[in-house]
Amino acid sequence: MDKLWAMEVFVRVMECGSFSRAAESLNLANATITSSLRNLETHLGVMLIQRNTRHLRLTEEGEIFLPKCKEILKSVAQIESEVTVHATEISGMLRVESPFAIGQNILCPKLPELHKRYPNLSVAVNLTNEPHSMIERATDVAIRMGRVEDADLVARPIYEARYIICGAPSLVIELGSVSPSELDPRICMGLLKDNYQTPNLWTLTCQSEEVVIRPQGALSFNNTAALIQAATSKMGLIYVLDIFVVEAISQGKLVQIFSDWETSVCTFHAVTVKSRFASPKIRAFIDFMLEVLDPEHRPDLKSQIAVGSDRKMRKLR
User: Fold this and answer.
1) pLDDT band at 85 (very low <50, low <70, confident <90, very high)
2) Pairing of β 49-51 and β 56-58
3) Residue 172 CA to its chain's centroid (Å)
4) List of residues 6+ apart from 171 with CB closer than 8 A
5) Where in the sequence is the domain holding 189, given as residue range(s)?
6) Is residue 305 in a domain?
7) For the segment 38-76, what is each residue's pLDDT rounded down to a tens digit?
8) Which regions of 114-222 does DSSP assign to beta strands (E)?
9) Of residues 76, 257, 227, 234, the one with CA closest to residue 166
10) Considering the domain boundaries, does residue 307 fall inside one?
11) pTM for this one?
12) In sequence order, which ranges of 89-213 are alpha helices (DSSP H)?
């Protein structure tokens, strides 16, 4: 038995003064009203209403029960109203997880503008290159790179980064006008794969020509930040996503080469826990990010989002 519903029927019967008028107000059959009240009385083990064909009168137990029912129903209505209002407000705490690169270069610089737009919204940002369980950490939105390997998550593409080859200005000058096919692999530093044995290949295409380079430089790392630091120290060329080196390039510490060649693309996603109802603050945050991100790096939102078939989350470098 739905006790709350039965209480509402009981209160409505007494407010209307008859079973038939109560049934009409609730758009229910008379038999349904009668059955609901009878079940409530059976559950309580008391009679609440004495009734005949013309009159209704509360019993002593009914006199006690009626005001309590009204109080409970009023509290429920108030709680529902508060929850509904809160569900439409962009306020409270928003917990965001992001890789260091996109967090430092894109997300964090935009947070003051987000605060101006939504002054009642507080944002807690966790910068990490190791994806954590969003449910366990109570994370509202996570920025993830590449595939999202969890069926319980929903991913929306927000930023499209491209791999570029770059190096210290003095090293690039020494290379001169060399083409990718003439590039010496021994000056190419590698980003190691998960097994830490072999570096990722560099793939470049221009029209019908494709060049694949296997780095054989003196240094290799399993961390992009370390790779960039070595490159600025003139240890060799690197092949990394443009988002990771945008600051170093703008400061003149690194220079891009072979910009007319096509390379692989990696998409960043705004990831949320799958739910029937999307929080307004989460929607507002994702819409804001799409609005302020560089349009040239905005992926096609109509494209299919890569979601892995297994539930293992891939670590970010």
Assistant:
1) low
2) antiparallel
3) 40
4) 187, 234, 236, 237
5) 161-257
6) no
7) 999 999 999 999 887 678 889 999 999 999 999 999 898
8) 121-127, 141-145, 153-167, 190-191, 202-206, 209-213, 220-221
9) 257
10) no
11) 0.61
12) 100-102, 108-117, 169-175
